[in-house]
C-alpha cells in the first residue's frame, strides 16, 4: 500500500545537477527531510552552489514551517540514499540506457510501495521502466527549470505504471507545493515542452533565414506575448481578447488565418469537434466570470508583472 | 522633411476597438494630444469603456508629465481626424481591401512628411500601400494586445517605404514609451506573432488529438515556461541554463533532439552557420555578464513575477 501523501516526511533526490539539486532545494524549502544522492563526492561543491542560490529565492517566496538546510543529508551510496525514503525523485542524466540500468537497480532496492518520479524531459516511462521488476510505481514527474521556482510538474505513467501511482504522484506533488498536470497520454515532450519546442524551432527557422537575431527573438517575447502568457495562458488570452464571443469568435472569425504562413508549423484541420473542444474548454476555465472581469484581472496582473520585472531589472 | 521625433505632441489614432482604443490610451498616458477617429459615433461608449479600463493600469504604471484625458478629441470625420497630426496610428479592421482604400485616402489628405503606422497583425505593408500615392511614409507598427500594457511594437516597411520612415518610426515609438523591434525582412506574422502562432498551432494539435485540454495548455504555460520567458526570452533561457558553455553547449549537446518529435514543427537543419548565429547572438546579449550573474538575476525576477501574480490572483 502506498504511503499516505500527507504523511510523507522523507524524500530522496537522485542527482545533484541543476534539476536534481533544484528538486532537493524545493523539498527542503517545503519542510521535508531530504537525502541527496550524488554519483560522485566531487559533485558536492557544484550542488552546494545550486542550493545556496536556490535557497535565497525560496526564502524570498516563503519557506514552509520546519524547513531547514539541516534536514539535508548527502550520500554517494545508492542503497543508503533510498533507505527510509517515502518518495524518490530521479534526475539522472538523459540517457535511456543509464536510466534503464538505474531503474532496474531501484526496482530491487526500493520497497515496491514507494513511488519513483523521473525528471526526464524527453524519454518515455514505458522505455525507462522496461527492465524494472516493479514498474507499477514508476512515473514521469517532469519539472521546468529552475525546478525550485517554476511550479509545473508534468505527470504520466508508462504502460506498466499503475493508475494509483499516477494519482498518488499528483496528490503528493500538490501537497509538496507544486502544480501537477496529469497528462492524458504518454507523448514525446509532454505538454509544456511541446509548446516551448514549437516556439523554439520557429525561432531557429527565423535565425536560419536571416529574419531575426536571437536578440530580436528575446526582445519580442519579453515585451510581447510572454508577460501576458504568464498570467493567462494562450487559450484564455485569445478567449478574453475576443470579448463576449470568446474562443468561439476567435476560431469562427480567425480560423482561416490558421492556413496562413504565420509559422512553419501547419495547423490541424479546424473541425467542428476541435472548435467545440476549444470553446468548451475555455468556457469551463472562465466559469461564471465575464470577459470584462477577466480582462481587468489580466491587466492588473500584467501591470504587476511589468512592475516586478522593472523593479528587479 | 519628417518632424523631429522629440517634438511630436499630437497624434491621431484611427479606430476605436481594443487596438485603436488601446493606442489612444497609451499615447494619452505618455502626454500627447490625441485625436481618435471613430468610423461611427455609436462606437463611442465601447471605446470609452476601453479607455477607462486602460487608464487604471496606465495610472498604476505611471503617467508621463502632462498626461491628461482632457487632451483627447473624438471625431468621426477623417479629414478632421488627421488635421494637425504629427503621427498617425492606423488600427482599422483586418481587411486588405478596406485598408487599401483607407491608405489611398490618407495618401491624399495627410501631408507627405507625416508617418503612418499600421497596427495590422497579418497583412504586409507592400500590399496595404499599393494604392497610396505617398507610400514612402507608411510602415507597419504592430503592437501586442493589450497595446497600452505590452511594450512591443514590430516595425517594418513595405517595398515602397523609405528607410528614413522606418528609422523615424523606431525613434518615435521609443520616445513614446514603447519597445520597437525593427524587422530584418517583411515576413507574414512578423517575429512575435510567428513565435506565438507556432505555440498556438501545437496547442491546437494537442487538443485535436486528445493529448491535452485548453485548461492543460494554460496550466502548463502559466506554471512552466511563461514566467521565465517573460524575464529572459527563450534564447537566453537556454543560454543561461547551460552554464558556462551557454548556447554552444545547448546546441552541440541537445542539437540531435531537434530531430525528435517533440512538436509537429520540423526544425531547420542545424548548420554550422545557424549554430554560430545562435551562439554569437547570445554572447552578444550576455556581454561581459557571467552565467551565474544572469541566473541569479533570472531567479530574482522570476520570484518577483511569481509574487506579483500571486498577490494579484
TrEMBL record, chains A, B:
InterPro entries listed in its UniProt record: 3-OHacyl-CoA_DH_NAD-bd, 3HC_DH_C, 6-PGluconate_DH-like_C_sf, 6PGD_dom2, NAD(P)-bd_dom_sf
A Pfam family that the UniProt record links to this protein: 3HCDH
3-hydroxyacyl-CoA dehydrogenase C-terminal domain segment(s): 189-248
Superkingdom of the organism of origin: Bacteria
Record flagged with keyword rRNA processing: no
Keywords: Oxidoreductase
Domain 3-hydroxyacyl-CoA dehydrogenase NAD binding: 11-185
Name listed for the protein in its UniProt record: 3-hydroxyacyl-CoA dehydrogenase NAD-binding domain-containing protein
Protein species of origin: Pseudohalocynthiibacter aestuariivivens
